[in-house]
Amino acid sequence: MKTLREQIEELLRAGLQQVQAAGALPEFALPAVIAVAPSRHESHGDYGSPVCLGLARELRRPPLQIAQAVLPHIPAADFVAEVTVAPPGYLNFALSETWLAQQVTAVLAAGDTWGNVALGVGKRVQVEFVSANPTGPITIGSARNAVLGDVLASLLAAAGYAVEREYYVNDAGSKVQHFGGSLYARYANLLDVPEPFPEQGYPAAYVTELAQAIVAQEGRRYLDMPRETAIRELYRLGIARVLEGVADDLAQLRVHFDTWFHETTLHTSGLFDAMMAKLRAGGYLVEYDDAVWFRHPDLEKDAVLIRSPKVAPNPVDRPTYLASDIPYLWHKLVERGFDWAIYVWGADHHGDVPRVQAAAQAVGVTPARLTFILYQMVTLLRGGEEVRMSKSSGEFVTLRELVDEVGPDPIRFMMLTRTVDVTLDFDLDLAVEQSDRNPVYYVQYAHTRIAGVLRKAAEERLDPQVMGDTRLLTHPSELALIRKMLALPDTIAQAAANLTPHLLPLYATELAALFHAFYRDCRVVSTAPEDAALTSARLTLVRAAKNVLARVLHLMGMNAPDRM
């Protein structure tokens, strides 16, 4: 479906073409994109466009004069009540109230597809997110990543893209080696065998718990093999068990993946070596200081791909993250044929972005096919004080603990309430507060209130499923609610196009506020015979509002409760 913005843009484009054809303005190049936005002031109508301001320099006329010339050439449309000109040259569109009321049935007919737009037209997109090192439980540090990636995927699917969710398992390199060494040390110690704990190991309690489970199941088996073999076997077993826990923890947050891609397959398949050969043939590899470096004209300095043996004596520790990122992007965009790859990374990886983009160009992949979402960290607050955490020291709050304490809905909603470029404060006390101060409660209570209205109607022997005469919906609070419901397609289109999922909780909050205002201003259920037609119309509106609010909650991966 076309959004209201798109339809208004089409009217403006037609008007600009017709004003030239009529000779009312000199010829000029039509803008590739005509900006249309919701009006900030009710007196300016519903939507406005500054297109005439942008034409002023080319036409050498005041924008107000241009707008006045364009106005009579804008075609009529059933959804537009009036088009007006406002200084310094805006064209403002007021929606027809009659048309607005009629759209309630269209919203109901669309059901849970309301808001879908044809932005992606089937383009294949992979969203890779979370991808935390498989060396321990998921912490709340990855919760924002998980929610952002999952909701971005849902938004893109609603916008017409074919989306796949992927978790990249970093099961190669030094971190998993340290994890294996930590697990071996705890395993050996539990069996009364002295084994020093690795200097860069993982001292957290979960490592000991894993070792205890392995002792209970396998006994001394790993002590009867060479130490390095035992460490390798234990880190493979440990990673598998950690990933089982990770998948379960993420499922508690309602996050699921289509694919769990293991970094080790890049090496076992030969793709890693093939990409290194491709880079070498292209002149992008240089060797010095006993290391292999990636050199590209777009980079200020070389980036190490293979560390020196002096730095990393064990060969499996020598490839850097970038060295694996290169065959991985090739595997996504060439071998698996995705049109677009989206990476959700912490802001501390900002320096890696230009290197991966340069590497993509070096192997023949258009860098524009890669998008990086860089998000700031989460600060966990309890009683107004920050809760500190660190996976390496063992002092951290797990995602499972957070879900158990506050539930998945507050986590998902609150992780979306800020743009990705700002640090997010997660207030544990607010997350569980049952009041309008808690935005999660406020939005979900609107859905509960709607369900309560429909139950009340049924108790009064009124059938909420009967389609009322929506032409009777003329109250300002009714029309304001309908306007907001009709804005969901534009919201989805904008959020998907700009990868800005924070627009969803904002929209949900505004929709909830308008329903609460409607509930305050308009009595819905009345058994008086003279109110029968209006009651039926308002129940139809209530059902439509329930559908739209549930849709946006489900896009955020949240429940739409009928009772609280």
Helix proportion range:
40-55%
Compute the separation of the termini in Å: 34 Å
Gyration radius over CA: 29 Å
Task: Provide the CATH topology of the largest domain.
Answer: Rossmann fold
Largest sheet: 5 strands, parallel
Structural class designation: alpha/beta
Provide the low-confidence segments as ranges: 390-394
Let me know the average pLDDT.
94
The tally of beta strands, per DSSP, is 15
CATH architectural label of the largest domain: 3-Layer(aba) Sandwich
CATH class of the largest domain: Alpha Beta
Strand order of the largest sheet: 7-6-5-11-12
Shape descriptor: flat
What is the fourth-level CATH superfamily of the largest domain?
HUPs
What percent of residues are in strands?
5-15%
Indicate how many domains the architecture comprises.
4
Number of alpha- plus pi-helical segments: 20
Task: Summarize the model shown.
This protein is α/β, with parallel strands linked by helices.
Architecture overview:
This protein has 564 residues and is α/β, with parallel strands linked by helices. It has 4 domains: 4-95, Gyrase A, domain 2, CATH 3.30.1360; 100-119 and 435-555, Isoleucyl-tRNA Synthetase, Domain 1, CATH 1.10.730.10; 124-170 and 259-375, Rossmann fold (3-Layer(aba) Sandwich); 174-252, no CATH class. It has 20 helices and 15 strands. The strands form 4 sheets. The chain has a 5-stranded parallel sheet with strand order 7-6-5-11-12, with helices on both faces. A 4-stranded antiparallel sheet has the order 1-2-4-3. Helix 6 crosses helix 7 (205-218), helix 16 (439-459) crosses helix 19 (503-521) and helix 17 (476-486) runs antiparallel to helix 19.
